[in-house]
Amino acid sequence: MRLITPFALLSLTAIAFGQDETGKFQLGVHFSPEVAYRTFLVTGKGFHGENHGNDRPRFGYTTGATATYSCNNWLELETGVFYSLKGFLTPDQRYIGVRRGFLGGPIGHGDIVLRDHVDYDFRFHYLEIPLRANGLFGQRKWKLLTSLSVTGGYLVGQQTTIDFPKDDWPDTQNVGTDNYHRFLMSAEAAVGVHYSLNDRFALRMAPTFRLGINNISKPYFFGFSPWNAGVQFSCYYRF
After folding, report:
1. Are 136 and 76 in contact (CB under 8 A)?
2. Taking burial as the number of CB atoms within 10 A of a residue's CB, which of 4, 22, 46, 84 is the most buried?
3. How far apart are CA 195 and CA 76, in angstroms?
4. How far apart are CA 64 and CA 55, in angstroms?
């Protein structure tokens, strides 16, 4: 009896310790197809929103991996690394540029060209690190998921494609980040569902809205910030 009691206490302690150590940490992978757009901001240096009526959303997405720590049965803290494609479309614009040899001049000669009804496609490539708080409500396999986060993003690339639909010209692509601030701060909110497959694996689906807070445009006459809205699909593994 004297041997059984210490052994039983040791076993209970080991089980509790194992649950505490193996049950609090998760790794997750995520993918979110999204609608990408922008919000114009007042910069204090001039007007804003002059082209807002012509803008259109474009397809974007966010994908990445996270690590999650469970503080208790309903609260989680999460962070990770994401890649996010943001942007917008600006159709039916006026183009003023230089096309070499357009008027039949010698090689290397540049001609100023004016065209209407030209379409622009702006794409912004970001690496992002979110700091997220998740709430899980429910006692069964299905739970209500709520999430709030602040995300810091770094612009790693920007592309602008110019399409001339009324001319037999190849698309023109401008690549560079000189006209944009690299850092983007965003706020994110999501409400969705959590489903536990078993003690280790769980699936989540949550409509998500991520709004850029600061201006990323360097030109003085207007500022804007990108935003994304979509549905995030996630798979988690609990240690």
Report:
1. yes
2. 84
3. 15
4. 28
| Torsions phi, psi for 2 (to 5 deg) | -65, -30
Burial class (CB in 10 A: 0-12, 13-18, 19+), 10: exposed
Element (H or E) spanning 59, and its range? Answer: strand 58-70
Cβ contacts of residue 36 below 8 Å, gap of 6+?
57, 58, 59, 60, 85, 86, 87, 88, 226, 227, 228
Q: What tens digit of pLDDT does each residue of 102-137 get?
A: 444 444 445 666 666 788 899 999 999 999 999 999
Beta-carbon count within 10 A of 216 CB = 25
**CA dihedral (229, 123, 30, 130) positive or negative:** negative
Other CB atoms within 10 Å distance of the CB of residue 100 = 11
Residue type at 40? F
Question: Domains of the chain, with CATH numbers?
Answer: 24-90+124-155+183-238 (2.40.160.20)
